[in-house]
Amino acid sequence: MPTPNPVRELPEILRPVRAEMEQVGAILRGEVEQEAEALRGMLAYVARFAGKRLRPAMVLLSGQTAGRMTGDHLTIAAVVEMIHTATLVHDDILDDASARRSLMTANQKYGNEMAVLVGDQIFARAFVLVNSIPSRLASEVLTRVTTVVCTGEMLQVHHRFDFSISEDLYLRIIREKTASLYAAACELGAAFAGADRAGREALHRYGLDVGTAFQMVDDCLDLSGDEEVVGKTLGTDITKGKMTLPLVHFFRTAPEARRRAVLDLLEREGGREDKKRAVRAELEEQGSIGYAEERAVETVEGAKHHLARFPASPARDALAELADYVVHRTM
Length: 331
Prior knowledge:
Layout lengths: L9 H4 L4 H16 L3 H11 L6 H13 L4 H25 L3 E2 L2 E2 L1 H5 L1 H19 L6 H22 L8 H25 L5 H28 L2 H4 L5 H4 L5 H9 L2 H12 L4 H15 L1 H18 L8 H15 L3
Antiparallel strand pairs: 1-2
Helix pairs in contact: 2-3, 2-5, 4-5, 4-9, 4-17, 5-7, 5-9, 8-9, 9-10, 10-16, 10-17, 13-16, 14-15, 16-17
């Protein structure tokens, strides 16, 4: 997805919160060090899946955009990252994935049983940490959003290999399982900066749109990305029957004969790479991957409009640039 104005590298975009991100990292390391010695190694290993840490950065940037940042922002950012990490561990089990951030997944390294427990432990520690904040707001919002994330994951599993789902249902699934945590991160960043209801809602909507676009891009990368660049197992959406936006568009628009051909490919026994290449070729010819990329770009343009109610600042500019980064990334 080319852009006429190349997006800067992520560390440059996040420069306004660089010092605070280092503090969040220290909080996360401290959570690992509090564990029993037998668990520390596993939790430290899983913490290496952190990658871009977009969600905690969005807590901090939203706080700066809405007016001011407090120590509570740092705690909330750490909790959001812990919730996200726990969902990654569980996602890899569901997908039977073998690589994440160019590392062996927890389920491959420790087995499914231990990986489930590691994910659960991270969830538990996240909610212990968030309850250290005197205000109940963060705990209420993040408890609710964790329920929403689980509901979205369950809906996705329920509709595996359901090639008739609508784009509206697809959007509901990704907003719940992916975008809702982005939205909560931005809303809490605004709330703890003292923003009024309209400001909280604007940043909630910004986060929801950015998270939605992020998942649309992930859908495309699963088909056309390079595993060495992306750093995780690709093609799992196809083999697990997940209805991504390119597939939803294809089955809505392709002629019957071509739909049947792709169904045969999806149902055929065979290697993940061979199946991915064959399906990708069909979807590219139908314009379905391009459609998903365009929808992602449209969605982040909508996200940036929600920032207009805030005064110009380096943090607001970073949120706008972060939205562009999400759709033009290759990993």
